[in-house]
Each structure stands twice: as C-alpha cells, then as structure tokens.
Design goal:
The relative contact order is 0.11. This protein is elongated. It has two domains: 2-62, no CATH class; 67-200, Protein Transport Mog1p, Chain A. The protein is α+β, with helices and mostly antiparallel strands. The chain has helices spanning 2-16, 24-37, 41-63, 117-126, 182-190, 193-200, and strands at residues 74-76, 80-83, 92-100, 106-113, 137-142, 145-150, 158-164, 169-176. The chain has six helices and eight strands. Strands 1, 2, 3, 4, 5, 6, 7 and 8 form an eight-stranded antiparallel sheet that branches.
C-alpha cells in the first residue's frame, strides 16, 4: 500500500503543476487520484491503467518515426506499433512492410524493445556453439554492430538481425522474393541506429 500511495502522491504533484483541461492523460490520472482518495482502489487502478495505456500509445507513435521511408522504386504500408505491457508480458514492437512497385519483392522491418524474446537471440550472439548446427546463419557486422544473417541455400528469403541498446533492442529486417541480400542491407543502411537507441532504449 505504501508503494501505491507513493505513486498517487507523485500523480497529485504532477496535477498541481499542470493544466488538466483538454489533456486526456491528466484527466485519467486525476480520476484515479479522486477514486483513490475515496477508497475506491480498484477503480483507481483502472483509471491509472488507462492513463498508462494512453501514454504508451503516444510513446509508440513517436517510436514509429524511426522507421524509414520507402527506398526509390519501393512503396510502404503504414507503420504499426504494439505494446504488451498492459498484458503483463512487457515489450514494445514497431514494424513496417515495404514492397517493390515492379514485382513481388518484400521487406519488413521489425524493431522489438524490452521483450523476453530478445534473450534467446542474445544467447546465440554470445555462444557460437549454438550456431554450428545451423549453416544458414552467419555472423556479420553493420555500422560496428554485431548481427546475424540467416539465409537458406537456394531460397529467396533473407533475415538480418542486430542487437542495440546494450541488448535491450532487437532490429530485424526480413526480405522475401529477393535474388540477394542487397535490399535487406539497403534498408538496414536506411535505419538510424542511434535514433532507435535514443527512442526505444530509454
């Protein structure tokens, strides 16, 4: 209960120094504080969870801006963002799909932050023995970052993966219907890795 009380005190302080009118997040926080003071603890949690969800949504909208525009000759679908925090699983995923105007070639960029699934990839990166049984996966470097490139022989699919932000962020570029990995590498080049770390690694 002391922990909850400290959170509410922080929210009250925030409300005292902010203009609540017209800001739905602050309105939700104010409703949560009001419910807490009235002893309606479950309602307070509900209101504050809505505020957290909306804050996360705004964070996701900012995060989507790190995804690049389509390269010349390509088009792109709308960027997407999904947070699993409200489900108790943790992690944020943003993605965008790109496709060639003159063919079936496709590339998808997916960026995952603070997700348990990153741990498995990190283990592969630090343990070469785990890759010996998979000849389709090779280590490579991109802008000083160590990554893995996966490509099955005679296939037209490529998958490049990098770890950023001290292992908290995974960047994955998947290509399909490609003759080689040039499109995958071009989209890796189009990513601002430092901007990704600053946006998602904080």
């Amino acid at each position: 209960m002391k922990f909850v009380h400290s959170i509410v005190v922080s929210f009250v302080f925030l409300l005292q120094g902010s203009a609540v009118a017209g800001d739905s997040v602050l309105e939700q926080i104010e409703a949560g504080v009001k419910a807490y003071k009235a002893g309606e603890y479950k309602q307070a949690i509900t209101e504050l969870n809505f505020a957290i969800a909306e804050i996360q949504s705004r964070i996701d909208e900012v995060a989507k801006q790190v995804l690049p525009d389509p390269l010349p000759g390509w088009k792109a679908e709308e960027a997407e963002a999904q947070s699993m925090a409200m489900m108790g699983m943790g992690g944020t995923t943003i993605s965008r799909s790109y496709y060639r105007e003159d063919g079936e070639a496709r590339v998808e960029i997916q960026i995952v932050a603070d997700s348990p699934m990153i741990q498995m990839f990190a283990m592969m990166m630090t343990n070469p023995m785990m890759m010996q049984g998979d000849p389709s996966t090779k280590v490579f470097r991109h802008n000083g970052k160590r990554g893995l490139m996966k490509h099955e022989k005679n296939s037209r699919e490529w998958e490049a993966t990098l770890l950023l932000g001290n292992g908290r962020i995974m960047v994955q570029v998947n290509g399909s219907n490609l003759a080689d990995d040039s499109a995958v590498m071009a989209y890796l080049d189009a990513l601002d890795l430092k901007k990704i770390e600053n946006s998602l690694g904080q």
